[in-house]
Amino acid sequence: MVEFVLIAPLFFAIVFAIAEGGMMLYIYNSSQHAASRGALILAAEGNAFNTDTDAITEMRTHTDFGGSGLITITEYDIYLLKADGSNKRDTTGCGGTGCFQRYSATGAQLAGNWPTTTRQTTSANADYVELDIHYDYHYFVTPGALSLTTQRFFRLEPQSS
After folding, report:
1. What's the rounded Cα separation, in Å, for the pair 138 and 86?
2. Bridge partners of 154?
């Protein structure tokens, strides 16, 4: 009985650490999948009026990201990147502040100066875009949360006229 009292805390700590690690990997994989689905919609629809709304709806409804109850999505951000392929944000466009759109977890626009209709989708000048999903991971075993961001970098697909 004494051996059990000495070994049990270590055993249960290891079991719960494995469970927590598994949930974190599941959430990470789900966030990558959601960002990929959103990037696919943004790239394919280009500068259509409802592109951002469609992408956020896709990320919220057609992936299991957030279905576990262990995360809270805080916002979605879309940024214009430099055209040199460096994956750095363009800080010269949109009046010198950088072009971006920021949405709440529900898809409501919070801020932004880069409407979808102004995005470049011509073959020679298609914009490079960054999609960020900000979320809080709530630990499975202990109280507390970890703020995380998933990013995707891509180029808008040229649209035929």
Report:
1. 33
2. 129
Residue 121 is classified by DSSP as -
**Which stretch of DSSP H or E encloses residue 41?**
helix 2-45
pLDDT tier at 41, thresholds 50, 70, 90: very high
Which band of pLDDT confidence, cut at 50, 70 and 90, is reported for residue 132? Answer: very high
DSSP state of 20: H
What is this structure's pTM? Answer: 0.87
Q: Which long-range contacts (CB under 8 A, 24 or more apart) does 70-73 make?
A: 70/23, 70/27, 70/137, 70/138, 70/139, 70/140, 71/27, 71/31, 71/135, 71/136, 71/137, 71/138, 72/105, 72/135, 72/136, 72/138, 72/145, 73/105, 73/133, 73/134, 73/135
- Whether 121 has a pLDDT exceeding 90, the answer reads no
Which token pair is 2? 């004494």
76-119 per-position pLDDT tens digit: 999 999 988 899 999 888 888 899 999 999 899 999 999 999 99
Amino acid at site 34: A
Q: Which of 57, 27, 29, 65 is nearest to 41 (CA)?
A: 57
